[in-house]
Amino acid sequence: MDALWDHGPGTIRDIINRLSHDPAYTTIATVLRNLDGKKLVTALRQGHSTRYEARIPREEHVASVMRHALESSRDRTASMLHFIDTIPPTDLDLLRNYLRARTDGADGGGR
Length: 111
Fold this sequence. Notes:
InterPro entries: BlaI_family, WH-like_DNA-bd_sf, WH_DNA-bd_sf
Strand content: 5-15%
Distance between the termini: 33 Å
Keywords: DNA-binding, Transcription, Transcription regulation
Protein name: BlaI/MecI/CopY family transcriptional regulator
Family: Belongs to the BlaI transcriptional regulatory family.
Strand order of the largest sheet: 1-2
Number of strands: 2
Organism: Citricoccus parietis
Number of helices: 6
Order of helices and strands: HHHEEHHH
């Protein structure tokens, strides 16, 4: 997925060339077929080859993984608070500013 997110759509050979190691062609083909089955990539036939592209941006995927993790928690509040306790101060500032803007927008204060 990183190869597709970082460099855009590509064939299996393109993706292999983007990697720092040299995996087997069939390995990458299998991974892409599995990702297509999970609706994470789209396979586009072009002549005799197939180009693959990510269906959603990396950030949207990460948010989905975070939602899934929270949904699987037995104590959502504790999980959220533990996560928030571990994030760096700059991310806390980002979160505060976002929540402040979101609250101001809900009150008609605008964003």
